[in-house]
Amino acid sequence: MNILPMSIPDVSLASKPNSDDEEHEKKILTLLSDRYKEKFTKFPREKGWMSEDVYMYQGFWYITDHAFSIETVIAVQESFQAQSTDIYIVTQPKCGTTWIKALVFAIVNRTKYKNINPLNHPLKLYNPHKCVPFLETEIISNVPTYVHGNSPRLFSSHIPYRTLPKSILESGCRLVYMCRNPKDALVSWFYFANKLTDKSRTQMTIGEMLNVFVKGFLPYGPYWDHVKEYHKASSEDPTKILFLTYEDMKVDTASKVKRLAEFLGFPFTEKEVANGVVDEIVTLCSFEILKEVNKNGDYRKGMANNTFFREGKVGGWRNYLTNEMTQIMDDITMEKFHGLDISF
Ligand SMILES: Nc1ncnc2c1ncn2[C@@H]1O[C@H](COP(=O)(O)OS(=O)(=O)O)[C@@H](OP(=O)(O)O)[C@H]1O
C-alpha cells in the first residue's frame, strides 16, 4: 500500500502554511504594493466589503494588501505564463469554487491516485484550494505547488475575463467557469465575511452585504459583469471555455461530471463507468465528505478550512432574504442577463 508522502509529493508540498511562508507572502505583498501603489491609488475608490477601501481596476473592484487583491491580480496579469496544457477554473467568489476545484482535481488525477489507500487521496487530506492553487496565491507563495511541473497544471482564479493574463487566452488551454444564483452567492458572502477569524474586521448585516453586492464593491465585483463576460467567451469558443452553473451541477451530478471530464480531455472509459469510478468521484467531492475532511485547520492565516463549507444548497437564500431584497436582486439579474440563456 502506498502511503504519504511518497504517493503524493506535489500536493503535500503545499499542505500546511507555516510562519516562514506567511512571512514570505507578506514580503511579496509589500513588494507588489510598493510597485503598484502609485498606479492604483489613482483609480476610483469606494468603501466596500467590511468597510475596506475597494479600488476599481479594468471595471472590477478589488481590496488591497491581501492575497486576493488588486496587487496580486495586476501581478498575475503582467507576469503569469500559461502553458497550452493548463486547465483553469474561474469563478466569482462563493459560486462553487471549492466544489468545482475538487471535481476537476479528482477527474484529472484519477489514474494517479487509483492505487492508493482512498484515505490518502489528497482531497481526503487537504482543502481543495490546496490541491488546485489560486493564481493569486501562487504568485506570492513561498512554495509553488507545481514545482514538479505536473501536466496538466491545474489553477484557479477569480480574475475577470478581460483581466486574464494574455498568455492564458493565447495558449489555447481549457478553462472551466462556474456561476451560481446571485442570491445564494450573496448569502454565502454574508456568512463567509462574518465568519472570517480576523476579529479586526467589522461584522456586517445582510442588508449591508446586499448593498455592497449590488454595487459590486466586493472583491472581483460586480458579479453580473463577471458572469456575462465568461458566458460570452464560452459561447464564442465552447471547446475552450466551459460555462457551468452550480445549480445545474447539483442535478444528476454524475452525468455532468462525465461531460466535464470530456471537456477536460479526460473522458471516462466504459469500464470506468461500469466500475463506478464516476460515482466515486461524485461522492469524494460531495459537500458532506469535503466538509468533514475540512472541519479543522486553516487554509490561510485567519481563514479556517471550514469557512468554505456552510450549507451547500440550492435556494437557501429563501431563508435569509426579505421579499424586498429578493425583488432588488431579481430585478438586476433580469436586466443584466436579459437575452442570455443563464438560468438558476
Ligand atoms: N462540495 C460541495 N458541494 C456543494 N457546495 C459546496 C461544496 N463545497 C463548498 N460548497 C459551497 O460553496 C460555497 C462556497 O463557495 P466557494 O467555494 O466559491 O467559495 S470561495 O470563493 O472559494 O471562497 C458555500 O455555499 P453556502 O453553503 O451557500 O455558503 C459552500 O457551502
UniProtKB/TrEMBL annotation:
It is an enzyme of class 2 (transferase). Residues 85-340 form the Sulfotransferase domain. InterPro entries: P-loop_NTPase, Sulfotransferase_dom. One of its GO terms (cellular component) is cytoplasm. GO terms for biological process: sulfation. GO terms for molecular function: sulfotransferase activity. Residues 1-22 are annotated as: Disordered. Its EC number is 2.8.2.-. The keyword Transferase applies. Keywords: Transferase. Belongs to the sulfotransferase 1 family. This is Sulfotransferase.
